[in-house]
Design brief:
The complex is a heterodimer of chains A (865) and B (84). Chain A is an alpha/beta fold. Chain A contains 35 helices and 13 strands. In chain B, 55% of the residues lie in helices and 0% in strands. In chain B, helix 1 crosses helix 4. The chains are: A alpha/beta (865), B mainly alpha (84).
């Protein structure tokens, strides 16, 4: 049994003794840098709002904490962390989080033997697993709260128990404050991916150096972490591409490198978490040390996520080694290393369970850890035979062996990483096979990258111990470095400064975005309305617990939306529905249109404009009267409400262009319109891709012969996927000839679907134009999107419309200069609100009048107040 | 300098830091967190300490708090010898 002392020992650490006059200048210097850091977080909207709030709470408490007597500092930090928890989750969530945590800690300190305490922990852990897996009702805690709670206890509890059970007389005894600070540390509230901190280190390295040095080092790590988060955004927005689009060695290289470089986000958040703890006296070791510059697989394992490595060494490697030592050192070495990688593989899934729910024990995951483990074993055996050169200080000259070893290690790990990130091994093999195609430009780029990589990798990069700060040239001192990094970042966020750099303003604007890149936006919108349980919310909650989309945000859609997966249109509207969605009335008429009641026959003397589209046309998130369709009709008929022009709304949420084509033919044209406007958005090929996939899997009726022909040309299989996934058509044919049941692998299916969908969109526009003209009406295409911060480009639609001889009204840039947040229906939903719809109606009115002067005789009504 | 300290220092200099200036390795130089004692070197050092001082170490002793510096190692060795 381990008793907890009620307070810190009364012996004061000499280095932390306060000479207030001497402390103030360095304290103010760190506080100034902290203000810069907060400004950078705010300017670039880094990570989440929760991160900013938590950072603000910690920054607010920093100076007061540093001026307190040592014994009061840790309790003050605990109070700050508890306050930050309330800020992040609210009292209702924070109280059960604290309650569960205190229960677990209480069990560990019961006056029972270790065996009994562990036996008591098991049923409690099982109960928590039940809640987290939703087998038991666990929705009294939000997804984000469960993730953070899991992060605080999943690894730290075993480390804590281990530290208590092996505690020597020299180890400081746990106190109430130290234990609460260890488990409930504030950085975890915004960084759930920071679960491992060694308890013994946490206790021993608390104010064990001059306080000002600890604070400055902490601030330097915060600055480095923020810069890594900015670099992550550069990679995320500018270099990440969909692996399915890779067609040559240049693309493959881009996929491989960008996938690996995305890890900057993890290392950045780890730096920040440890840096923030440094501001409160914990001189914790660096979490990642120049891991891109590792010179061997062992070196890589030692440099990347050092806390995890230490955790594994302590709880798995050394115990396994000592257990196997009687069988010889080589057997023990291999056995212990294999045990570490096996445990890492399992524990990554355990971590995934607490953070995201589910246990993803996949083949790429297993192969990644097995391969990395194998390489480390090989490296370890080699090092144990040949030895490894170590040095107290690094040699300060460029070295060719170091350069090529670093580049070789980096390349191997990046390739391995791309396999780990692939959805399946087959996907990865197809990706890698694309590297067989190369042109001169690709080879030149690779040569250039290699030369640059060797040039950088040959130098002995590394930082000097902080204790030697005084001996460093002024520009290398931590305070100068962190101030320089933060100031440069902050200056880049200012448009007048960014504007002086080539494309500076555009880059700075993009780095300030918090939205998904085009690839992830497309993936996220998969099942946008179909999956109303919205798994995207889970991700949102994990990274930003404070801004969760309301549970039932889209749910009423199922009351008016009819979804069928065996025919086209897959989506249509149920007739005669009246309901409230997102606080606004939604009225569907007897024809299944969000519109007034209309007669099928066109009244004499009336011109009709039929508008076909998706959620923007439907008017998701605005009242019946506020849709731009209704507003356009009011403007065209003028204040006298002459009813000379009818604008009919055929909008159906999340309808693909195939749905809209069918709606045009089945419904819109039966109302004898004079003009039919088809609204399109940039997601058209993605939505068609998703719909075709479902239609093919269900062997559904594709309705249009031309569509069938397109799919046949792309050799897309019709029917459910069954058999062994085999890449390459030739290989599949050979194996099928031998009677082996084979199927197209997922990756190849996606590539073929993508190409077929692009063609299908083009064909759909052409058919739309033909059918509308055949019905005696004028076809028009209008391009419009939601209020995304970074609207993805889709210029092809203008070319597609022109090729089909259709006039295109381009509204993609309508919101470019607008105050976008003020025009959204909610912070989490990019659909336009009533004011946004008014902008669309105004612009559309001008465009239509310019095209059909006859409509210009109507006087435009003033916009609704 | 304590004899254990000087013996262990000599062992580390000749085994892991060949050619290094002996004055660069002090009693407080971090050994584990600086990478001088990685996992393999740590296990070699454990074997050396057990052999040299006829003591037995276990997995719980392999920690930066006990093998982190020459001073920590010296303290550990003296503690183990005293407990024999």
């Amino acid at each position: 049994m381990e008793a907890v002392a009620l307070r810190e020992p009364s012996v004061e650490v000499p280095s932390a003794r306060i000479d207030r006059r001497a402390q103030v200048p360095p304290l103010l210097a760190v506080a100034g840098q902290l203000v810069l850091a907060i400004a950078v977080i705010y300017a670039f909207r880094l990570e989440s709002r929760t991160f900013f709030n938590v950072a603000l709470v910690l920054a607010g408490g920093f100076v007061g904490h540093a001026l307190l007597p040592l014994q009061a500092r840790m309790p003050f930090f605990v109070a700050l962390s508890a306050g930050a928890m309330v800020v992040a989750f609210g009292v209702v969530q924070a109280l059960p989080m604290l309650g569960i945590g205190l229960t677990l800690i209480g069990i560990v300190h019961l006056p029972l033997s270790l065996r009994w305490r562990l036996a008591l922990l098991l049923p409690v852990a099982a109960l928590l697993v039940g809640f987290r897996s939703t087998r038991l009702p666990g929705d009294w805690l939000s997804t984000g709260a469960w993730a953070v709670l899991g992060s605080m206890f999943m690894f730290r509890l075993p480390l804590y128990v281990h530290a208590l059970s092996t505690r020597s007389a020299d180890d400081p005894a746990p106190t109430v404050a130290s234990t609460l600070a260890y488990f409930f540390m504030a950085p975890n509230l915004c960084f759930p991916l920071f679960p491992v901190v060694d308890y013994r280190t946490f206790r021993r390295q608390y104010y064990d150096a001059p306080a000002s040095e600890i604070y400055q080092t902490g601030l330097l790590w915060v600055a480095r972490g923020l810069i890594q988060l900015l670099l992550y955004r550069v990679v995320y927005y500018y270099f990440v591409i969909d692996p399915a689009t890779a067609t040559d060695v240049g693309d493959v290289l881009q996929v491989v490198l960008s996938t690996y470089l995305l890890y900057l986000r993890v290392s950045g958040t780890f730096h920040i978490a440890v840096g923030l703890l440094g501001l409160f006296g914990w001189r914790l070791p660096e979490t990642h040390h120049l891991y891109f510059l590792a010179t061997s697989f062992n070196d890589y394992w030692r440099r990347i996520n050092i806390y995890w490595k230490d955790f594994m060494m302590k709880l798995v490697y050394y115990p396994s080694f000592f257990l196997l030592r009687s069988r010889g050192n080589t057997v023990a070495l291999v056995g212990a290393t294999v045990a570490v990688f096996f445990a890492t593989w399992l524990l990554h899934s355990y971590q995934w369970f607490w953070l995201r729910r589910g246990v993803p024990l996949t083949l790429p995951d297993a192969l990644f850890w097995a391969t990395l483990g194998g390489l480390v074993v090989w490296n370890a055996l080699r090092e144990s035979r040949r030895g490894r050169r170590r040095a107290v200080a690094l040699q300060a000259s460029w070295s060719w062996p170091r350069a090529w070893r670093t580049v070789a290690t980096f390349s191997s790990i990046a390739l391995l990483w791309s396999m780990w990130s692939a959805e399946s091994i087959t996907d990865w093999l197809v990706l890698v096979s694309a590297a067989g195609s190369a042109d001169a430009a690709d080879l030149f780029t690779i040569g250039l990258l290699l030369a640059a990589g060797l040039g950088v990798a040959g130098w002995p990069w590394g930082h000097r111990p902080i204790a030697h700060a005084a001996a460093l040239p002024w520009y290398s001192r931590p305070a100068v470095r962190s101030t320089g990094m933060l100031s440069a970042a902050l200056l880049l966020s200012l448009p007048p400064v960014a504007g002086t750099l080539p494309r500076g303003e555009e880059v700075a604007a993009k780095l300030k975005r918090t939205t998904l890149n085009a690839r992830d936006e497309a993936l996220r919108n998969k099942g946008y309305y179909e999956k109303l349980d919205a798994p995207g919310r889970l991700e949102n909650a994990l990274w930003d617990p404070g801004s969760i989309m309301p549970e039932r945000w889209y749910v009423p859609s199922i009351d008016y939306l009819r979804v069928a997966e065996d025919r086209i249109p897959m989506r249509s509207m149920r007739p005669d529905v009246q309901l409230t969605q997102m606080g606004y009335p939604v009225s569907i008429n007897r024809w299944g249109m969000r519109d007034h009641e209309r007669t099928r026959e066109k009244p004499a003397g009336v011109e009709r404009i039929a508008i076909v589209g998706a959620s923007q046309v439907f008017g998701l998130g605005v009242a019946d009267d506020a849709t731009f369709v209704r507003q356009l009709e009011q403007r065209l008929n003028g204040p006298a409400r002459s009813d000379r022009v009818e604008v009919l709304n055929f909008g159906v949420s999340r309808s693909s262009i195939l749905d809209r084509l069918a709606t045009t033919e089945d419904l819109a044209l039966t109302f004898s319109p004079n003009v039919v406007i088809l609204f399109v958005n940039w997601r058209e090929p993605v939505w068609v891709q998703q719909d075709l996939r479902k239609l093919l899997a269900r062997h559904s009726d594709l309705r249009f012969d031309e569509l069938r022909a397109i799919l046949a040309r792309h050799e897309l299989p019709h029917g459910p996927a069954a058999g062994l996934p085999v890449p390459f058509a030739l290989l599949r044919r050979q194996l099928a000839g031998l009677g082996v049941p084979v199927r197209m692998p997922e990756y190849e299916l996606r590539i073929r679907l993508r190409d077929a969908s692009t063609e299908a969109v083009r064909w759909a526009v052409t058919r739309f134009a033909e059918r509308v003209r055949a019905a005696g009406a004028v076809p028009v295409i209008a391009s419009l999107d939601v209020l995304a911060d970074v609207p993805p480009a889709y210029p092809e639609i203008v070319e597609i419309g022109s090729a089909a001889g259709v006039d295109v009204i381009d509204l993609f840039h309508l919101f470019d200069d607008a105050d976008r947040p003020a025009l959204r229906i909610a912070p989490w939903d990019d659909h336009p609100n009533a004011a946004g719809h008014a902008m669309i109606a105004d612009r559309l009115l001008r465009e239509l009048v310019a095209r059909r002067p006859s409509l210009g005789s109507a006087r435009a009504a003033p916009p609704p107040q | 300098m304590d004899s254990v300290t000087s013996t262990v220092k000599q062992y580390i200099l000749t085994t892991f830091l060949q050619g290094e200036d002996p004055s660069a390795l002090t009693e407080t130089t971090p050994l584990m967190t600086s990478g001088i004692l990685d996992s393999l070197a740590t296990l070699d050092l454990v074997s050396f300490l057990e052999r040299e001082y006829a003591i037995e170490l276990d997995a719980g002793d392999v920690d930066a708090s006990r093998l982190g510096t020459l001073a920590d190692i010296t303290k550990l060795v003296h503690g183990k010898r005293a407990a024999r």
